[in-house]
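User: For a benchmark we're assembling, each entry needs the component sequences followed by a predicted structure for the full assembly. Here are entry 17's components. Please fill in the structure.
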Amino acid sequence: MTAPFQVIAGFLPLLDSAVLVAAREKGFAGREGVDLSLTREISWANIRDRMAVGHFHAAQMLAPMPIAANLGLTALAVPLIAPMALGLGGNAITVSAALWRALADRGAAGNLDPASTGAAMKAVIAERRLEGASALRLAVVHPHSGHNYELRYWLAASGIDPDRDVEIVIAPPPLLPDALATGAIDGYCVGEPWNTVAVRAGFGRIATVKQAIWRASPEKVLAVHAGWAAENGEALAALIRALYRAAQWAGDPANHEELAEILSLSIYLGGSPAALLPALSGRLDLGTGSQAEVGGFFSPFADFATFPWQSHALWFYSQMARWKDADFRRHDLEKVIASYRPDLYRAALSPIGVALPDRDWKIEHGFFDKKAFDPADIEAYLAAQKASLEATA
Amino acid sequence: MPDAALKILVIDENRIRASIIETGLREAGHDAVFVLHALQGAARKIADIDPDVIVIDLENPNRDMLEAMFQLSRSIRRPIAMFVDQSDTSSIEAAIEAGVSAYVIDGLKRERVKPILDMAIMRFNAFSRLERDLEAARSELQERKLVDRAKGILMASRGLSESEAYTLIRKTAMNQNRKIGEIAQSLITAADLLGGSL
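Assistant: Structure for entry 17:
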């Protein structure tokens, strides 16, 4: 089989590189005529820079990153588009054993329930303030990330002001379990396997998960340089088809053990397959002797998991504005919407008879506090969020 | 002309490379050069040093952390932007290929900082070459040891002289179009497997 399309893609050693890895290793790329080479990187900044200078045609990226690039919020911003998502969910919030004891004492249900755990957090923070203790320190991997925005969403919906009541710091994923162990941080929000790593080492407790905070929520996307996409339409369509087939394969529970074996190769994530299986199956060991089965914990395929919903892009933009990573400007909405390209996804997949959503956006439901996000009225959404936090925090 | 007034901070976990860069900058007339090997507690140190230019290696997993510090800029005097401007793609590419990145205080003229990045790129490349040479020397030494062992095995098992043993290994390598080291390695493996009865 000849491979007329050369594609070099960058990735970080995280569970949701699974679709890219499976596309290469299981031959889905080759069957679409794509010679897909994967290059592992060590930071999102490196992925962004190497995209900017053309070392990568495509890359796994945090879903808000292309939006941030197109709004000029980052260094070396080149126009990027996200023609496809790389899955839903996959993150969890892990806290130190000490913080978990305090949360459990104050009513955290222990079954990943964000509401009771959030209420307990609020109580712990209030007590610490009375005692004059330092603010809880929580870590995320990048400011423009699902991790940062879902952690903040959970805190704020629990009546905790993430900018005033806690300290949120940035640290790379492999450092997080160690930072938790040494007490440098009290908790973190990150993708797998970095929650399971801390649980297995015995010093972390999974407090809640992305899937419980916002069901079937976006996490990583396939990002490509807008210019490359315009000039290489056929290659991009072939890549999207290959990744779609790979996502279908990766989403089938019958393939999880093989997928975990492949991902644990040293050129991909390394480590042991056993550390990757909990996230793939959704059967999580939470620490402190508890287990939970989380349906759709990480979904590479089901629920249109690879469709680049424009309402996802708009929700991320709303949260960038909420937490002052960006100024809300009506005329920027066009740029935000154009960052996600469901039209390219449809063009690549409709010829092969794939079931597609009938619209490019939806009203987003599934938030644990029962609030819906209507992408047609972001200003009202932001105003309600502001008022609600001011009333409770 | 070197710009002695600029404060330059080098962040590199590799101490040897960091000192190569530091020496280069000092030789070029920069007096205010600081080096950090880890980012633990770096926010305060960066605030204390108050650098105009930060040079960091791309293998450092903490770049996202560093950039976030700049964005928050609570502890840092002024916002810092990536040095190389967008139009200058060849110099960005050279930097990335060398494995180095740089940030400067917003508003500094690029003529003042370009020589610093050029120096860093040069020294990063020189360091990589040095490492490659070292690696080559190491594997050459390794190969010589292997060949010595293989010769010893042949001398003992077949009663050959040292030069006859070497000739045999070399001829086998040429016939099979493989490297002498590979032949020596497979001879040793075979001898180990067969308990020295080759």
